[in-house]
């Protein structure tokens, strides 16, 4: 049995979870708290990020590597297209989306959310058992500083992240406004990556009041224009049909 170490709120962890569920690969989940996760992930010469999948001696610490492994283990319903050129394109999309959608959305989102304690705690405490909430609240000022430092969040990096995020969304709008998949005629790791990394922005049928309780005011203002984009419609379709 595999164990997935994750942050429940993390979109890179959602990418790994989606791939595991899509392949019906059995796994147990261990939810970790930011900063406290270092007791599990910190090892000399290794990165510290989640998701981390451990299965026997196997230790995969990257959502893309987890998809590679799952495609090898369960070749049915391939997430990497079989035709070589489509496989190359899907991997290239994944690389671009990880960087220009995943990292940028996270940096810009946390730039606005972390200083706003009620919104930040609401977001970060998702799926946290009540028993651990107290500890998390006590440590939150420290956790906030560590997250801002590790993600290199400053007004300048946040502004540049928003610029890249908008350009990536413009590019996605052009493609998914006219075709269902980013590559070829099938759902692939490119679509899974794009949709998972945008998952924190899903409305999930919530009312305006509920959304405003989740998103800090600047994120809420921006979200209203995101919601008008073809990419937002595509995001919901990907979740409806493939998640
Ligand atoms: N390239 C990695 C990125 C994962 C990542 O950035 N994870 C973040 C959470 S969204 C993390 O664990 N940050 C804490 C750390 O790096 O120690 C992947 O695809 O798995």
Explain what you see.
This protein folds into two domains: 2-73, Glutaredoxin, CATH 3.40.30.10; 84-242, Up-down Bundle (Glutathione S-transferase Yfyf (Class Pi), Chain A, domain 2), CATH 1.20.1050.10. The model has no long low-confidence stretch (mean pLDDT 95). The chain has helices at residues 11-22, 38-41, 63-73, 84-113, 117-124, 130-150, 155-176, 189-198, 208-214, 217-226, 230-242, and strands at 2-6, 27-31, 52-55, 58-60. With 243 residues, the protein is an alpha+beta fold. α4 runs parallel beside α8. It has eleven helices and four strands, in the order βαβαββααααααααα. It starts with a strand and ends with a helix. The chain is globular. The chain binds glutathione. Glutathione (GSH) binds next to α3. Residues 1-78 form the GST N-terminal domain. This is GST N-terminal domain-containing protein.
Summarize the helices and strands and which ones pair or pack.
Blueprint: E1 2-6, H1 11-22, E2 27-31, H2 38-41, E3 52-55, E4 58-60, H3 63-73, H4 84-113, H5 117-124, H6 130-150, H7 155-176, H8 189-198, H9 208-214, H10 217-226, H11 230-242
Parallel strand pairs: 1-2
Antiparallel strand pairs: 1-3, 3-4
Helix pairs in contact: 1-3, 1-8, 4-7, 4-8, 8-11
The structure holds glutathione (GSH).
Organism: Paludibacterium paludis
Protein name: GST N-terminal domain-containing protein
Domain GST N-terminal: 1-78
